[in-house]
């Protein structure tokens, strides 16, 4: 089953330069699809567009076969809980004035009337928060801390916990390990793989790190200057058929 389909998606900056230039691809249910390319190539802009965080110039966005590119905010609301995003910088994603438990409960507070929970129990806020922290392998006592009181790796796990709290079907991971040390990177990647399998998630994994993408993903898309220039299964990464730019990326990882 196809979870997400993008057709001829285009997004321009005010000066007319195309950040995303007629991009098309599909993402299957349960898949981790990688999107790689150097900084500034349009990866994050594409992510914000397909999640309808930013408006698009033209093109189509289908979520499980339903066109969502033209929906107003009211009609888009039910799709918001099905598609979540984890950003690169967890410190920016968490309100420094809120305790971890307050940040974790916020998405549930927005969508609780529409949720039919299958993985987490909502019998009480405390039980719910404890389950979320357990899911991302964090201790329960972390709930009463503030973001500045925990490590960068722990902060990113909290943002992942918040993303899965409303049991989405698709998560966009936008450079989720870029701000972490090597040990924390490996641990977070292992956690994300485990969550995808146990919670039946689909991922769009955005990174400039081919090593991480090849570890995580079944298929890989390569983006350059707003365009998709190569796509292949991860076991074809070192094939001679790869685009010359893909080979450049391989040479430096």
From TrEMBL:
Residue ranges of every copy of the ABC transporter domain listed in the record: 4-250
Source taxon at top rank: Bacteria
One Pfam family this sequence matches: ABC_tran
Classification via SMART domains: AAA
Protein name: ABC transporter ATP-binding protein
Gene Ontology terms: biological process: transmembrane transport
An example molecular function term from Gene Ontology annotations: ATP binding
Keywords, sorted A to Z: ATP-binding, Nucleotide-binding, Transport
SUPFAM superfamilies given in the database record: P-loop containing nucleoside triphosphate hydrolases
Statement: the UniProt record of this protein carries the keyword ATP-binding: yes
Keyword ATP-binding on entry: yes
Record-linked PROSITE patterns: ABC_TRANSPORTER_1, ABC_TRANSPORTER_2
């Amino acid at each position: 089953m196809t979870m997400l389909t993008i057709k001829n998606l285009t997004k321009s900056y005010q000066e007319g330069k195309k950040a995303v230039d007629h991009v098309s691809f599909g993402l299957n249910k349960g898949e981790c699809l990688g999107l790689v390319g150097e900084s500034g190539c349009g990866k994050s802009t594409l992510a914000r567009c397909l999640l309808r965080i930013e408006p698009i110039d033209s093109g189509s966005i289908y979520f499980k076969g339903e066109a969502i590119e033209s929906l107003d905010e009211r009609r888009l609301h039910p799709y918001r809980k099905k598609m979540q995003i984890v950003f690169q910088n967890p410190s920016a994603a968490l309100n420094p004035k809120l305790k971890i438990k307050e940040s974790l409960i916020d998405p549930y507070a927005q969508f609780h009337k529409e949720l039919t929970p299958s993985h987490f129990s909502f019998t009480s806020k405390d039980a719910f928060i404890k389950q979320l922290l357990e899911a991302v392998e964090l201790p329960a006592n972390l709930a009463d801390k503030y973001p500045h009181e925990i490590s960068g790796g722990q902060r990113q796990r909290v943002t992942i916990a918040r993303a899965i709290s409303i049991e989405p079907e698709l998560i966009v991971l936008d450079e989720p390990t870029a701000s972490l040390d090597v040990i924390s990177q490996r641990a977070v990647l292992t956690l994300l793989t485990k969550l995808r399998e146990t919670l039946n998630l689909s991922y769009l994994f955005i990174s400039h790190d081919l090593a991480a993408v090849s570890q995580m993903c079944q298929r890989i898309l390569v983006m350059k200057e707003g365009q998709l220039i190569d796509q292949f299964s991860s076991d074809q990464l070192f094939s001679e058929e790869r685009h010359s730019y893909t080979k450049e990326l391989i040479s430096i990882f």
